[in-house]
Amino acid sequence: MESRILGRTGRNVSVIGLGTWQLGADWGDVSEDDALAVLDASVENGVTFFDTADVYGDGRSESLIGRFRAANPDLDLTVATKMGRRVDQTPENYTAANFRAWVDRSRKNLGVDTLDLVQLHCPPTAVFHNNAVYDALDALVDDQSIAAYGVSVEEADQALAAIERPGIATVQIIFNAFRLKPLDAVLPAAAEAGVGIIVRVPLASGLLSGKYTAETTFAASDHRTFNRHGEAFDQGETFSGVDFEEGVAAAQEFARAVPEGVSVPQAALKWIVEQPGVSTVIPGARNVSQATSNAQAADVPELGADFDRVVHDIYDRHFRASIHPRW
């Protein structure tokens, strides 16, 4: 699989990574055996980058990755985790002492002395402008508790504020065919600064899988049921914040434009990989089939300018004037 430098980490990572929220919680039940099989299938198909967080299943996702890594010590993997959502989301909780406690917990869960990459997990906006936050993160790099740090964001302005900081290695952001705003400023700014871009929610929580209809339902424990309107956390994390029925209609148009022999989610992933400035994209997978198909998206022939124009046309007609205006 093609690999790219992950921003200021200096690490080579696969252009298709693996997001592991679903291995912890909020996507219905995934057994430990299934979770480990997903990790194994991803690596077998060239994936070298895993993304997790300390709150995914209260550490379950991290611990499963730690077990997998311990069982496969010769694999050249980069594991990014996130911290900050274990407390009330007030800027005052983003302290050096809390950072130390969270990092130490993640190091234990993942079974490593030094975390490859730690990202602040969508903190309040004020955190991005607090010099003490970056000083505390720099101290963790200095004592080798972490190798590098970045941020996961909800808003473009948060990403742009982080990119200005010299210690920021990566920015993780929601970006897909139904959420194009990062193209305007975030991706160009990151590329100019040498900051890596990790793309999350690339399939719009499954809308871009091409298999949903307006009648599709999800388990009660699935965030696509309980957070559809932002009841539990930022609405952008669920279906990229778009209306489900409108998203289904747009996904059907997207599917009709996909080249023969390419699956709908593979086309959605490949389109993201082709955007300048993207380092890696982290789709989730609940089973081996999904993990394999996602990884193989890297081998899809270039979609090119004509497909890109279709993506923009669908976006402009379905979403530009409502939830994600680009202008």
Molecular shape: globular
Series of secondary-structure elements, N-terminal to C-terminal: EEEHEHEHEHEHEHEHHHEHH
Mean model confidence by pLDDT? 93
Low-confidence stretches: none
Provide a quick synopsis of the model.
The protein contains eleven helices and ten strands. The protein has helices at residues 32-44, 60-71, 96-110, 131-142, 156-163, 186-193, 223-226, 244-257, 264-273, 288-296, 304-318; strands spanning 3-5, 12-14, 18-19, 49-51, 78-83, 117-121, 149-152, 168-174, 196-200, 280-281.
Q: Can you put this structure into words, describing what you see?
A:
The protein has eleven helices and ten strands. The model has no long low-confidence stretch (mean pLDDT 93). The chain starts with a strand and ends in a 9-residue tail after the last helix. The longest helix has 15 residues, at 96-110. The protein has helices spanning 32-44, 60-71, 96-110, 131-142, 156-163, 186-193, 223-226, 244-257, 264-273, 288-296, 304-318; strands at 3-5, 12-14, 18-19, 49-51, 78-83, 117-121, 149-152, 168-174, 196-200, 280-281. It is 37% helix and 12% strand. It is an alpha/beta fold and 327 residues long.
